[in-house]
Amino acid sequence: MSETAVTKGKLAIYWAASCGGCEISLLGIDTKILDVAEAFDVVFCPCIADGKVRDMEKMQDGEIDVCLFNGGIRTSEQEYMARLMRKKSKVLIAFGSCASEGCIPGLGNLHNRDAIFEDSYQETASTDNPDRVRPQAATRVDEGTLHLPVFYDTLKTLDQTVPVDYYLPGCPPESPRIWEAIEAIVAGKLPPAGSVIGEHTTVCDSCPRTRDEKKIKAFKRTWEVIPDEETCLLEQGLVCCGPATRAGCGALCPAVNSPCIGCYGPNEGVEDYGARLMSALASVIDSEDPEEIDQIIEQGIPDPVGTFYRFSLAASYLRRSKQAVADGNGSSAAAADVR
What we know:
The protein has 339 residues and is an alpha/beta fold. It has helices at residues 21-27, 33-39, 53-58, 76-88, 97-101, 113-123, 175-187, 203-206, 252-255, 273-282, 290-300, 304-308, and strands at residues 9-15, 40-44, 64-70, 73-75, 89-95, 138-141, 144-147, 151-156, 166-168, 323-326, 332-335.
């Protein structure tokens, strides 16, 4: 009698507002991709296969075992897909920093849709657009109406749109962490729902550099100094995000003499990554003079949002810049418009 065939799971991978690096990182698991293929049928991955949304819509609710969803939610199409994949998936994983925190696309929340379109379709040096044409959600032509997804004012994280079961951080997640997550899924050994799959300590804890008492008189830009290869980079005056950042990357940046930039997001229990990082950096400034402290910060950290919220603005308490919106009487008020 032949052996009973093992029923394979169904895996979906979707790419929303992100760069595509998460898909590339999946290939970094090397030959273990064959083990993934043995355990799962990839039923949806627009990056590598011609899957149709209508095929997903026809699936039974919960028919997909695991969905790796990377990217934030910037358009109506991405929101629709987030809701669809949530409905069709038993387990939905926010895969990578863009889905978990908003990442670099989330910095667009410093502006609104009109400002972004003005820059993209008018102000760039390579753009020739004398008629000031802008993308429209609906355009009427002889054959009918053409539709584009609505571009929202505010980029949202995946869990600001739908419930998320697990988070796999990183920009992109490192391949060993991806494989650990896949092993946990296959073995049915996932942590409690809502958990981050990965390590629960900081980059500093995995960094081999020598640390002493951190007291500095100035923050230095990376192009201003060639640091020594053994001493803590923060103690050398470089803005290293290691004290606030979750481990999982293997401290790869400090290993090549470059400060951690925070792509693995906040460590366990940290509610606002930027606030945690500000606190860590404030503790190393060797001054009690408010004017001197201001000068140290202004000269060494000229882009505070890009430094403290490079990956996490959309997920932070700040979330976005305030905007003026019209109220029912036609007057304006400051508000955080999510659309």
